[in-house]
Write a structure and sequence with these properties.
single chain, about 180 residues, alpha/beta, seven-stranded mixed β-sheet, two-stranded antiparallel sheet, about 25% helix, YfiR/HmsC-like
Length: about 180
């Protein structure tokens, strides 16, 4: 099941404000890189890794060439930090808590998605707006807005817990809970 979300409406919690701010910054100042970084940080704020995995510092591995943000530096206000490493598909390992998939050969993408299944790794891409190729979250840009889709099947295949409020952001109810 695939849920598409367009970021609109008011929000009330820190992760939601990060994701909402991402959409606003594209509209207000044209800062797509800043918006993507806020959105990635906001999405990561909704994720609960299995117990035993430290929550204060996450490691994001960027594979391929991001389309929307040439410089990845996720913004996680008050929620720890995310360090970023740019690596080749063949270098992905268990040190990656978040796997950001940019433009890359289809064979590399398939291998990485297969490797992630069952592991506590959050997958985000900006090179699959329809969210068909196995990433959990798929960023897309249309006109002056940044949005994302959620691949519920991909989420269900792994041990990560995603706060259900992330599914309500685009519904305009703010996800208050």
């Amino acid at each position: 099941m695939l849920a598409s979300l367009l970021l609109i409406g008011a929000v009330s919690t820190t992760p939601q404000m990060s994701v909402q701010a991402a959409a606003q910054s594209v509209v207000e100042d044209g800062g797509m890189t800043q918006a993507v970084n806020r959105m990635v940080g906001g999405i990561a704020s909704y994720v609960r890794w299995p117990s035993g995995t430290p929550a204060t510092n996450r490691h994001m591995c960027v594979v391929g060439t991001p389309r929307l943000a040439p410089r990845m530096a996720p913004d996680t206000p008050g929620r720890g930090s995310i360090s970023v490493r740019y690596i080749a598909a063949s270098a992905v390992n268990a040190d990656c808590d978040i796997l950001f998939l940019g433009r890359m050969p289809a064979t590399d993408r398939r291998q990485l998605i297969a490797w992630v299944r069952g592991r506590p790794v959050l997958t985000i891409t900006d090179d699959d707006a329809a969210c068909l190729y196995g990433a959990m979250f798929c960023l897309s840009s249309r006109a002056a807005s940044l949005s994302f889709s959620v691949n519920l099947d991909a989420i269900a295949r792994g041990p990560l817990k995603i706060d259900p409020r992330v599914l309500r952001i685009g519904a305009g109810d703010g996800g208050a809970g």
